[in-house]
Sequence to fold (359 residues):
Amino acid sequence: MVDNRIIMHIDMDAFFPSVEQREHPEWRGKPVIVGADPREGKGRGVVASCSYEAREFGVRSAMPISEAWKLCPQGIYVRPNFELYEKVSYNIMSLIKKYSDKFEQVSIDEAFLDVTNKVKDYEEAEKLAERIKKEILNKEKITCSVGIGPNKLIAKLASDYKKPYGTTVVKPEDVKLFISRLNVRKLPGIGPKTESVLNKMGIKTVDDLAKVDVKILVDTFGVFGYRMHEMSLGIDESEVTEEYEIKSLGREKTFEEDIDDPEIIFNTIDELVDEFHEELLALDIQFKTISIKIRFENFETHTRARTFEFYTKDKKIIKDTAKELVQPFLNIGRKIRLIGVRVSGLKLSEKQKTLKEIT
DNA sequence: TCTGGGGTCCTAGGACCC
DNA sequence: TCTGGGGTCCTAGGACCC
Fold:
């Protein structure tokens, strides 16, 4: 088992609202909620992220915006400005990268660093973490929390342990104790559904999980059961690596009100395709599969796909195929909530293969 | 409470090939 | 007469992550 590495996970604190508060000093210290338009409580959509001040009112990420409005009507509600967040993210990632050649960006606001060859022990790693936190705060005015451990799993769980602006160090000898007390829901890949199944099996904490026979987990969850068992013991051999290849690209839209007019559907498909086709060209990507997604007013969701025998980047093929695929769902007396278009089966140009695209 | 938008990965069944 | 087996590709649905 390789637990002689020292891995760091750096996670921005309430990233979107923090950027907004940085740009609007008058919003500092106030509940800022980034997400859909609340429309006086009648809005559709969810909270993307909210400031710590908003969390005091019970507002949480992924909560319906209408519920957030009920809890915190005096909040400052802002539509996400991804271009801005991506710019700030780029600057922060550039700062972090300098500290190790083994760097991996996992999302717009978090990254791993393998600092095994950069520090001699965990004490030095902790000092390095403080340096990185201060540099990000000084240069970009954003706070982050850091977790340090012998692998990516422990580092990630540790960065989440003390927030905001916390640092949590979990040495190899402390891994068992640290992880065993956590709720299973904290483990990556265990969401609400899996948690509920585990709870029904009498498994609530990681310690409970560690005591279950792997066979039972594999029988219940397939290969993921095996991974669950490994995680329960704090094992994660995966490397910190920047290698990444984009697998699909698309857009989707939820209508402000459910509709049944095919004309609106077709126009929306055109708009969605126009948007991401630009990206496709900029990235020099070809595709051979086109899929559509449609969601009815009762949230019932369907997908349809078609794969060609050739790769192309043709915009008209996407639009025509998407409209054909969507046709059977129209004029059947059902209202539509969402429509989406996506391309996959990608062929990337050589230069693109090593570049990481994070949205 | 009434569920965004960008993605990834997994599963299961069917087609097809050798 | 009672139905091979392995591999790959495709489709559709679903869970999950940030």
User: Anything to note?
Assistant: Residues 35-36, 44-48, 62-67, 70, 80, 82, 189, 222-224, 246-254, 299, 338, 340, 342, 359 of chain A lie near DNA strand B (CB under 10 Å from a C1'). Residues 354-359 of chain A have pLDDT under 50 and may be disordered. Residues 248-348 of chain A form a domain with the Dna Ligase; domain 1 fold (CATH 3.30.1490.100).
